[in-house]
Design a protein that fits this description.
Length: about 210
C-alpha cells in the first residue's frame, strides 16, 4: 500500500542543500556510479529499457552481471533527459547522449547505484552489452519538484520556469536537463508520485 501512496522505501542519492527558494533548490551531489542504457526512443520504450537495467541489478530474478549471486539494491530516482523536446515518464535516469547510434533523438536511462559502489570497477560487470557503468563527478543542479504524471507539457512548463528563475538569479546552466522519477508509474497513483526537473548549473551564482 505504501508504494501505491508514493512511499519511497529505497536508497536515494545524498546531496548538500546549497540554497532553497520558493521556486527551486540548488543541490550539490557527490560523485556517484551509474548503470545506463542509451537508446532510440522510436525503437525502444522506457518500460523496455527500465527492464534491461532492472535485470542488471537482479530486480526480477538472477542479476545479469558478472556476479549472478549478488543482487544490487534498487535505488530512486530513475533519471531521463533529452535535448530540446521531451517525451518520457518514471524514476530511472535518462540523459541525452551519444552512444548507441548517435542521433538527435538518442536518450540515456540511468540507475544511480548504491553509494557503496564508489568507483565503476567496484560494480559487477554487466553481461548485457547495452548496459554501461559510468562514474559521475561532483555536480550541482537547480531542482524543482512536482507530483502527478510527468507528461511532456508538465515537464516543459517546469523546465522553462526553472531555467528562467536560475538565469534571473545569476546561475549559469551548463548542460541538458534531467527528469527524475521516484515512483513506479504502474504502481503509484498519480497524485502521490514524486518527480523532479533538474538543470546542471555552475556551483555559485554570478
Amino acid at each position: 500500500m505504501g508504494m501505491v501512496l508514493g512511499k519511497i522505501g529505497v536508497e536515494t542519492p545524498k546531496y548538500s542543500l546549497v540554497r532553497t527558494t520558493g521556486e527551486y533548490e540548488i543541490r550539490k551531489y557527490p560523485p556517484s556510479v551509474t548503470a545506463q542504457v542509451t537508446y532510440d526512443p522510436s525503437e525502444s520504450g522506457d518500460r523496455g529499457v527500465f527492464t534491461i537495467l532492472a535485470n542488471y541489478i537482479g530486480a526480477f530474478g538472477d542479476p545479469h552481471n558478472s556476479i549472478p549471486e549478488k543482487k544490487i539494491a534498487m535505488t530512486a530516482p530513475v533519471i531521463t533527459s533529452k535535448p530540446e523536446k521531451i517525451s518520457m515518464t518514471a524514476p530511472v535516469i535518462t540523459t541525452a547522449a551519444g552512444g548507441v547510434k548517435e542521433s538527435s533523438s538518442a536518450m540515456t536511462m540511468q540507475f544511480v547505484l548504491p553509494a557503496k559502489y564508489a568507483k565503476a570497477e567496484d560494480a559487477p560487470k554487466p553481461t548485457d552489452e547495452r548496459v554501461a557503468i559510468r562514474e559521475e563527478g561532483e555536480r550541482a543542479y537547480g531542482v524543482v519538484r512536482f507530483s502527478g504524471v510527468a507528461h511532456d507539457k508538465a515537464v516543459e512548463e517546469r523546465l522553462e520556469r526553472l531555467r528562467g528563475s536560475l538565469e534571473r538569479d545569476g546561475y549559469k546552466v551548463v548542460g541538458e536537463f534531467l527528469l527524475a522519477r521516484y515512483n513506479p508509474p504502474w504502481i503509484t497513483l498519480p497524485p502521490f508520485r514524486t518527480n523532479e526537473v533538474m538543470l546542471p548549473v555552475e556551483q555559485s551564482a554570478a
